[in-house]
Amino acid sequence: MAYFPMFIEIENKNCLVVGGGAVALRKVQVLLDFGAKVFVVAPEFLPELCALENQGVRLYPRPFCEEDLTGCMLVVAATDDAALNHRVAECARQLHIPVNAVDQIEDCSFIFPSYVREKNLVGAFSSGGNSPVMTQYLKKEMAKVLTPELGNANEYLGSLRDSVKVQVDAQTDRKKLYREVLARLLSDIEAGGDGSSLSEEER
Q1: Residues near 143 by beta carbon (within 8 Å), at least 6 away in sequence
Q2: 3-class DSSP string for the chain
Q3: Which of 19, 106, 149, 189 qualifies as a cystine partner to 24, CB 3.0-4.6 A?
């Protein structure tokens, strides 16, 4: 089954991870990478998870209960107990909360893609749960293309949007202008620049 590639904003949104092991740790780190407020529930936690409390992760050392889902934007069931993961997923579905149950594709309403991120520029890959090896391969290859310089260029293009909207009326003209600026940024990157801006001459 192919999953619809929808990007959602989770910065400062409540996200629950059930589980305290290595898999839960990886999911927590991904959620933190996108600015989520992460809550973790498990009887015990890896020391690496405990260390993330200084990044705002809140740990609750106890078994999962349905009330943990209150106010959550999404949920991850990442325990080594398939029955518990299924229960978490069922509870989340009843409340219409997106849920990922690790390695239990039938209990997932969303999956974690492999991704490459440079600032706000993100490229992500999904195999529909068929092959993590394939998505990791694509991630490695995309990292050669989606460089920090492209991340800088994306930020620079974003910084132009407000002034371009005011100064250029037609949408087709705005697209043409953005393409021209992008071409100049790419040329600058190829010449060894960092893609963060254009010189006065290039403008």
Answers
A1: 116
A2: CCCCCCCCCCCCCEEEEECCCHHHHHHHHHHHHCCCEEEEEECCCCHHHHHHHHHCCEEEECCCCHHHHCCCCEEEECCCCHHHHHHHHHHHHHCCCCEEECCCHHHCCCCCCEEEEECCEEEEECCCCCCHHHHHHHHHHHCCCCCHHHHHHHHHHHHHHHHHHHHCCCHHHHHHHHHHHHHHHHHHHHCCCCCCCCCCCCC
A3: 19
**Residue at token pair 């600032």:** 119
Tokens for 165, please give them: 């909207």
Q: What is the pLDDT of residues 41-76, one digit of tens each?
A: 999 999 999 999 999 999 999 999 999 999 999 999
Statement: residue 200 has pLDDT above 70: no
CB 95 within 8 A of CB 66: no
Average pLDDT over residues 148-165: 95
The model carries a pTM of 0.88
Integer CA distances (angstroms), 13 to 17, 25, 166, in order: 13, 18, 32
Of 143, 118, 116, 115, residue with least CA distance to 194: 118
pLDDT at position 201 over 60: no
Is 148:22 a contact under the CB 8 Å cutoff? no
Q: Which domains does the chain have, with CATH numbers?
A: 14-112 (3.40.50.720), 148-190 (no CATH)
